[in-house]
């Protein structure tokens, strides 16, 4: 018996998809954080719809809006609990750039998941959250400011450095 060749179904890649996703590493990071249960194609669709919604709402380049939102939400400090002399102290630790961006992406996605029920689709929620964060008004920006405030309060227990 000869073995028959299996038919390979090649998916046609959208031109929008290749344009937006091939060049930006930040969009790729968002895509990898969006994937649930291996559904990469669904994550692609959400990202493309999000970028189109940002384009329609702001009439500017959506990649620049995403970069600006990430710039405003990326923390430079993380709070770690350390036990010193029987008491637990919150000590600020400086973050690497990669760790900061991954935290910012995680915060943006978690805040858009808890966004109001009036906005039904994930792409609309993510688009409005990114636009709010690029205007320094989003929930992720507030979280960053709270962490920096806690770090400035607890700075006297560690190095005397003020974080902004």
Automatic annotation (TrEMBL):
Residues 6-154 form the Small ribosomal subunit protein uS7 domain. One of its GO terms (biological process) is translation. Keywords: Chloroplast, Plastid, Ribonucleoprotein, Ribosomal protein. GO terms for molecular function: RNA binding; structural constituent of ribosome. The keyword Plastid applies. Gene3D superfamilies: Ribosomal protein S7 domain (1.10.455.10). InterPro entries: Ribosomal_uS7, Ribosomal_uS7_CS, Ribosomal_uS7_dom, Ribosomal_uS7_dom_sf. It holds the Pfam family Ribosomal_S7. One of its GO terms (cellular component) is ribonucleoprotein complex. Belongs to the universal ribosomal protein uS7 family. This is Ribosomal protein S7. The lineage of its organism: Eukaryota, Viridiplantae, Chlorophyta, core chlorophytes, Ulvophyceae.
């Amino acid at each position: 018996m000869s073995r028959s060749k299996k038919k390979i179904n090649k998916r046609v890649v959208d031109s929008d998809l290749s344009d937006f996703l091939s060049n930006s590493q930040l969009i790729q990071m968002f895509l990898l954080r969006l994937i649930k249960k291996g559904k990469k194609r669904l994550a692609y669709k959400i990202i493309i719809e999000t970028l189109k919604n940002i384009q329609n709402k702001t009439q500017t380049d959506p990649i620049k809006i995403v970069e600006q939102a990430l710039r405003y939400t990326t923390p430079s400090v993380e709070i770690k609990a350390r036990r010193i002399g029987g008491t637990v102290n919150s000590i600020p630790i400086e973050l690497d750039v990669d760790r900061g961006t991954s935290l910012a992406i995680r915060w943006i996605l978690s805040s858009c998941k808890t966004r109001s029920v009036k906005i039904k689709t994930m792409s609309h929620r993510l688009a409005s959250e990114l636009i709010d964060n690029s205007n320094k008004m989003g929930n992720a920006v507030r979280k960053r400011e709270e962490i920096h405030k806690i770090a400035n309060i607890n700075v006297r227990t560690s190095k005397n450095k003020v974080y902004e």
